[in-house]
Design brief:
YerB-like fold, single chain, DUF3048_N, 6 helices, 6-stranded antiparallel β-sheet, 12-stranded mixed β-sheet, alpha+beta, signal
């Protein structure tokens, strides 16, 4: 894994260093408040990125996005406020992309649901979008536990198939069709999610200019490389930069949270139970800096904690990588301090 990691890092790393940005809205990390709570009304902040936006966009939308090599490059990921990367069956990961501050024109390829993705979407009171489901996820969705649109019911209407790709890697949905489906079913899209907490305080810890997360299959290894000029991490899959299929905009991340959670295979198809309730070890990576923290489930949201207190995110986009507790963080995550 180390040889592959170094080859990827050398081929794509342009400049790695610790950010020296000074805080523009200093707060005490232990008592940070959401910067999106603006009592003056002078400007609006996104509840999920903490960044200034022209106007509020209402309810968050959570979309299951395919990460099979035949589904790359995907559409919409660069505009997601939060992305969870989690194993489905085998060593294959899928994404749960949560959108609120931006509304990409087209999103996909859309893939089938699993129960643990649904529970994470509920943590943001999101309208949940998927195409297909596992038996457990089907029961949850058809039981009305979460507002949702599923391609099983709307294939060829709200969900469109791209002729350039083969099923199951070719299902897409536009935000125009998401709104249409929500309106038809009477789903309210006006209420924004509860604010996350943000702080501009510089990160402190070990330098981590490039970070690799291994899922045991090189096709799904993800590498995050700190771009000092941008002050953000770029993401790569199997050595290829993650960009939008249409716009070619890269995925850029201010907050990288890598957590380990208990995984258990529960059926002959390889489906999993993932424990998102017990908390555990994690790495929080910001500004080219890595620190060892813990994670907790706070109302359905996976958040970093240290010394029993929540750690605010930096304003910007967040990527949360979930790995099994075996092999765990020390074996699945490798990093280079810099050059």
């Amino acid at each position: 894994m180390l040889v592959r990691f170094m080859a990827i890092a050398i081929s794509v790393l342009t400049l790695v260093a610790c950010s020296s940005n000074q805080p523009t809205n200093p707060t005490d990390n232990e008592d940070a408040v959401p910067v999106s709570e603006d009592k003056t009304g002078a400007e609006s902040h996104s509840p999920l990125t903490g960044e200034v936006q022209d106007e509020g966009n209402g309810r968050s939308i959570a979309v299951m996005i395919n990460n099979h090599p035949k589904a790359r490059p995907q559409s919409g990921l660069s505009q997601a406020d939060i992305v969870y990367e989690i194993l489905a069956e085998g060593n294959i990961t899928r994404f749960l992309a949560i959108f609120q501050s931006e509304r990409p024109e087209n999103v996909g390829p859309v893939r089938s649901a699993r129960d643990y993705y649904i529970s994470l979407a509920k943590g943001y009171d999101s309208l949940f979008i998927a195409h297909g489901y596992s038996p457990d996820a089907k029961k949850i969705l058809q039981g009305g536990a979460v507002d949702n649109l599923n391609g099983i019911s709307y294939d060829g209407t709200l969900f469109k198939r791209a002729s350039s790709r083969k099923a199951p890697h070719n299902s897409y949905i536009t935000f125009e069709n998401i709104k249409k489906g929500a309106d038809d079913l009477g789903y309210d899209l006006s209420a924004p999610p509860k604010n996350l907490a943000f702080s501009d305080d510089p990160a402190k810890g070990k330098v981590a200019g490039s970070v690799m997360v291994s899922y045991q299959d090189p096709s799904f290894d993800s590498t995050f490389i700190y771009n000092r000029d941008e002050g953000k991490y770029e993401r790569y899959s199997a050595g290829d930069q993650t960009v939008d299929d249409g716009t070619k905009d890269p995925v850029l991340i201010e907050n990288l949270l890598i957590i380990q959670a208990r995984h258990e295979v529960v059926d002959t198809s390889g489906r999993r139970m993932i424990d998102f309730e017990s908390g555990g070890k994690a790495y929080l990576i910001q500004d080219g800096i890595r620190r060892d923290v813990n994670w907790k489930n706070d109302g359905g949201r996976i958040l970093p904690y240290q010394d029993g207190k929540p750690i605010p995110f930096h304003p910007g986009h967040t990527w949360i990588s979930v790995i099994p507790d075996s092999p765990g963080l020390s074996e699945a995550v490798s990093y280079e301090e810099g050059r």
